[in-house]
Amino acid sequence: MGRYILKRSLMLLPVLLGVSLVSFSLLHMVPGDPAELLAGEEANPEFIQALRKEYGLDQPLYIQYFHFISHVVRGDFGISIRNREPVIKLLKERFLFTLQLSFLSILIACFIGLIAGVISSTKQYSLFDNMSMVGALFGISMPIFWFGLLLMLVFSVHLRWFPAGGKGTILHLILPAIALGAASSAVIARMTRASMLEVVRQDYIRTARANGLREFIVIYKHALKNAMIPIITVFGLEFGYMLGGAVLTETVFSLPGVGRLMVEGIFQRDYPVVQGSMLLVATTFVVVNLLTDIAYAFFDPKIRYE
């Protein structure tokens, strides 16, 4: 198992290198000059050229990329063009909030999705099953920004139960977490239902029932554990989706996270901020996938022995 973890960890390096190269290339294809935006419309060409030289924007792209990577391996993401602050400092201030939002969202999605999927599989074609699958279809189909605005309208404007945005307490995270986790809960519910339906038809489940075990133990101890492999895969993918979906959620709810920082950096052509944010999100995503693979061994001993 240790060799497997080491091998997968080494495989993360080319993935992150590819992400950095693609993000760097796409970002420099976007029209606009950061030096001109920073200097203002009435700045003279000499001042703009001085800004380009200060931030290394006058150098060829391959040299700029080499400098970026050489600093990243030392833990230096550069200096923000707009804020004149170290990018690593901005990311430390914002990333913890994004992780809190994503973690709460995945908890909500797992709680709703697992319960709905298990009950639907044990009561196939019942009214609850049909309603939960229609709800799952609705959750997958609706855009995050629309659902977020709807939640604010109902629970913030009319009912005044939760704040409409900002940060401070756990209440500020409830509506954004629901908006972000709605689609994931729908995906998890559908996958749980499909996986459970396959497992509950196995012979060992019939044997467990024939031995007089309580239905609760049969379903949640034996069937659910053996159905968890595809569900865990969905967990990992959906957590990565939440890190990307946080861009919309944090913008709609005015949250100080990495997603909003990335959007602001794109509008301001702040290359170091956008590159650092994308690389940090990508790193988190591949690490979560690694932890997902490791979790397979806990639920399936065959993987651990192999």
Describe the structure.
By secondary structure, the chain is mainly α. The protein has a domain at 94-305: MetI-like fold (Orthogonal Bundle). 78% of the residues lie in helices and 0% in strands. The chain has helices spanning 2-29, 34-39, 45-54, 61-72, 87-122, 127-141, 144-158, 171-199, 203-210, 215-226, 228-252, 258-267, 271-299, 301-305. Helix 7 crosses helix 11 and helix 12 (258-267) packs antiparallel against helix 13 (271-299). The model has no long low-confidence stretch (mean pLDDT 80).
Provide a compact summary of the structure.
This protein has 306 residues and is mainly alpha-helical. Helix content is 78%, strand content 0%.
**How much of the residues is beta strand, in percent?**
under 5%
Number of helices: 14
Rg from alpha-carbon coordinates = 24 Å
Quote the distance from N terminus to C terminus.
9 Å
- Classify the fold: give the CATH topology of one domain: MetI-like fold
Approximately how much helix is present in the residues? Answer: over 70%
The overall pLDDT average reads 80
